[in-house]
Amino acid sequence: MTLWQARLGGRPADELWAFTASVAFDARLAPDDIRGSKAHVRALARAGLLDEEEASILQAALARVEEELAQGTFAFADGDEDIHTAVERRVTELAPGPGARLHAGRSRNDQVATDLRLYAKRAVADVARRILRLARVLLDRAESHAGPEAHLPGYTHLQRAQPVVLAHHLLAHGWALQRDLDRLLATRDRLDCSPLGAGALAGSSLPLDPDATAADLGFARRFENSLDAVSDRDFVAELLFDLTLATVHLSRLGEEVVLWSSPEVGFLTLDDAWATGSSMLPHKKNPDIAELARAKAGRLLGHLAGFLATLKALPLAYNRDLQEDKEPLFDAFDQTGLAFSAMAGLMATATFDLAAMREAASGVESSATDLAEWLVLQGHPFRTAHGIVAALVRDSTERGVPLAELVTSHPDLGEEAADLLAPGAAVHRRTTPGGAGPGPVADQLRAFAERLEGVEERVAHLG
């Protein structure tokens, strides 16, 4: 018997049941549903709608159901449409009289909205810790490679541009992760609002106190508008965006791992425990974690686009369309958590080939911008300086004459300017704040460490 079957004659069609039942995936909300139901029992008792004995019996029944679910002994029934139905059905079996009173003043509309917000608060805390772990790994590796000897080409358009300290490159990924954490924590603050008490859409005539229930459940506040409370899934869309962008940032790191670990580049070697082999090619060592990190970003992008399309043009208040919020959100949290944990392990154990990096950054073209800026310091307009150096590089390339020779003999440059072309010389010249040279990188390391400590403290308080 469903919670709504009394209104309809006969039993639901099998096809209707197969299409609409959600217990197969929303059973994940069981801990949150139990928690919300316990709080609702206390709310009913405060309102005088349950006496002390009834409330005690219901709390004991809910505790029993919670134990059965945790131990895997809970027996789902054919009529369990969703986790809310399953819990109430079992509570009523254990406490037939009081169980029939459990749903007073509550709808599955505000119940599921409450459960999903409780779940999201827990899930954000978990995934934030996983993102923090990778950020901490990047910081640790950066601190070990902050000197000028650890430098590599920086790229634009995947073409070598200017040399950068390896720590600077690693922290570029770290700062993106820090923004991901800020976004997730800000979204968590916004979703920290209890919908319980909104009922189906209009509240209740029973003397319930949503403020007290919100506080009981650990929410920062209660809803302001009951229609909005049961229909609002902004937080799901926000979380899907936050997680998608985080995996996009992870995908970018994964792409570099794939490139750097290839023999053609050779900047990085994967630890055996964090690589895979080939079923046919005995020599292969594949960066599967990094490749899957790229793919997961596309998967989450699909979830985000699909869910936004679901929300488009829905009338107020609750519609069954909103059942489609859970599977993409659950999968997004699952995949993001797994991806960040795996990439943290990969990055923590990978070995950088600093000699290969330095060799790649030793080409004289890496100092072309420094030559132009040297001319600026001598009083040349930058556009003139740019033209002089560009012409020398072109001449060197076309005639096969070493650039240093052309610079030395040029009337506006000479031997002092040619010294800028020495291997590694350019990396020392990035001196502006936030730049890629050793000095600014040392400052950046301190700043990033402080920022990370602040975020870690915020996450630690999430419970």
What is the strand and helix layout of this fold?
Elements: H1 14-20, H2 23-26, H3 30-46, H4 52-71, H5 83-94, H6 96-99, H7 108-144, E1 151-156, E2 159-165, H8 166-191, E3 193-194, H9 210-216, E4 221-222, H10 226-231, H11 234-260, E5 268-269, H12 288-311, H13 326-349, E6 351-352, H14 354-360, H15 368-377, H16 382-399, H17 403-409, H18 415-418, H19 438-460
State the helicity in percent bands.
Answer: 55-70%
Low-confidence stretches: none
Radius of gyration: 30 Å
Please trace the helix and strand order, writing H or E for each element: HHHHHHHEEHEHEHHEHHEHHHHHH
What global shape is seen?
elongated
Q: How many discrete structural domains?
A: 3
Strand composition percent: under 5%
CATH topology value of the largest domain:
Fumarase C, Chain A, domain 2
CATH class of the largest domain: Mainly Alpha
Classify the secondary structure makeup into a structural class: mainly alpha
- Distance separating the two termini: 38 Å
CATH homology-level superfamily of the largest domain: Fumarase/aspartase (Central domain)
DSSP strand count: 6
pLDDT averaged over residues:
95
What is the tally of helical segments?
Answer: 19
Side by side, the strands of the main sheet go: 1-2
Taking the sheet with the most strands, its summary is: 2 strands, antiparallel
The CATH architecture assignment of the largest domain turns out to be Up-down Bundle
